[in-house]
Every structure is written in C-alpha cells, then in structure tokens.
Amino acid sequence: MIYAESLESVTPSESIAPMPPRRPIDFSVAHWWRRVPGQQWPRQAEVLAAIDPTLSPLFQQSRPLAEVHRLDLALFVVFEEVALRVSGALVRRAPTQDALSFAAQQTLDEAQHYEVFLARSNQARALSGLAPGGIDPAILAPPLRRFVEHCYEVADRGDFVEGLTLTNLLLEGMAYPLYAYEERYWQPIDPYLARLVRFAFVDETRHVTYGAQLVSRLLFDDHAARDRVAKTCRQARVALREAFQYYIRVFVGLFDAVARQHRDVFADAELAPGRRIADTPYAEQVQHILHAIDSEHRRLLARAGLDLAL
Ligand SMILES: [Fe+2]
Ligand SMILES: [Fe+2]
Question: How many whole angstroms separate alpha carbon 265 and alpha carbon 280?
Fold first, then answer.
C-alpha cells in the first residue's frame, strides 16, 4: 500500500527520482481520514505554529520582490481553485467506489490548499495596500485560460476519466515538480510560504500518483477510451507546456533580478541541492526547471498508460 505518511517523507527534491513502484492503493476515505486529517495535518499545523507568519519588511522595501511574490501566490490560488472545482465536480460522475472516494478526499485536500494560499496571498496583498481576494484575471496567459476553460467544460460534461486526466495528470502533473524549486526560492525570504508549498506538495504527490493508477485502471480494457483520452492528453499537453514555459521564464526572470539586487538575503538560495541561484545564469535555471518538469511528466503519463500521448 502507498500511505500518506510514506509520501510525506518524500522531499520535493526527491520527487525527481523515479516514482514508487505500482502497488495497490487504499483509496478509502477511512484510510485517508486516519492518515491525512488525523495525522498529517496536525503535524503540519505544529510545524507552521513554530514559524513567524509575519512577512519580511523587505517586501515593503522592494517592489519587484513584492510583485513576484504576489504573482506566484496568485498562480497558486488559481491552480488550487481549478483543482478544487474540478475534483468536486468529478465526485458526481465517479464510475467506481475507489474513484468516488478519491474524488471526495481530493476535493477536501484542494479546499484546504485553496484556503491557505488565498490567505497568504491576501496577506501579501494587504502589505502592498491591495484589497483581499481579487486575483487579476490578466495573470492567466491565454494558453492557461483556454486549458482551465477546457477543464471546466469536461467536468461539467461529467467525463470522469478525461477530467481526472486533465487535472491530476496534466495540470498537477506538470506543476508538482515545480514545488521543489518554489520551496527553495522562497525559503530565505518567506519560510512560512516555503512550508506551505512543501505541505501542499505532499498532497499533490498523492493526487498525481493515485490519479495515474485510477486512470490506468479505468482505461485498462477500453482501448477506444484510452485512445480518446490519450489524444486529449497530447493536445492539452502542448498547450499547457507553452503556459508553463511562459510562467517559468517570467518567474525565474523576476526572481533572478530580485536575488541579484538583494544578494545578502539570497546568497545561499539554491536552484537545486548544492547549486546556488547566484551561480546559475538565468537561461540555465529555466532549462533546468523545464527539463525536470518534462522528465517527471513523461514518467507520470507512462504510469497512467498514456504513453501514446507522448
Ligand atoms: Fe492542491
Ligand atoms: Fe491536487
């Protein structure tokens, strides 16, 4: 069995290592309840309670730093909201008991992520004199906006496998390798956010791993459905990859400029273990992150039996 606590012990940097071998997964809500709300969340709350959530005064002194911080938080909020709304909608049309239980528990995980990132985003906005809540729709680049609309159409149509594939294997599947980088980038200046990212990563690892196994099972003996989902996957992956490339270039560019401006704060910030941001040119940082996403994502799709999509 793959248990929440075994996934929790995986650090984001280790996520780039091969995924655990396929084993039966206990999808029940009872199991999730014991491991996640019962154990994982209280442990995480204890860790967070020991970190001062106050934002560093540097966010008020450095406008570029405040801007890249707000942009990143806004993207977290957008992604979590999509995952929440789609997983909630998929509960309605789950075709098996395992699928039903998993969609239900993922909905709660995502609701929790959405709340914590929205709260941090509001805190960052307040520091810059901005009203809470309002995520500017302009932050959604056209390829991402089209992808999100497609996710909602599929969820509304009630296509469970396609909805799960789009959300867990594409949106989350491409995003979750990024969490390791996010955690390392923010650690020196916003360690509270770095922890939130780390804790969400634990859940996202579960969502993509469980999602891949469910998709693989649901499509096992239905070749026509697998071809259809693989085709959707192939098309959506191209569009989403374009969106990720755009955001990674923007984020790394902004962050790199900020890190060079505040060398004292970010002197030891790392792109990867043992590799300092300050010693890594911008283009190399971007290539490194894109390569990590691509290789991890290929592995994930292969595990879901969607190699045809590559
Ligand atoms: Fe999430
Ligand atoms: Fe998720």
Answer: 16
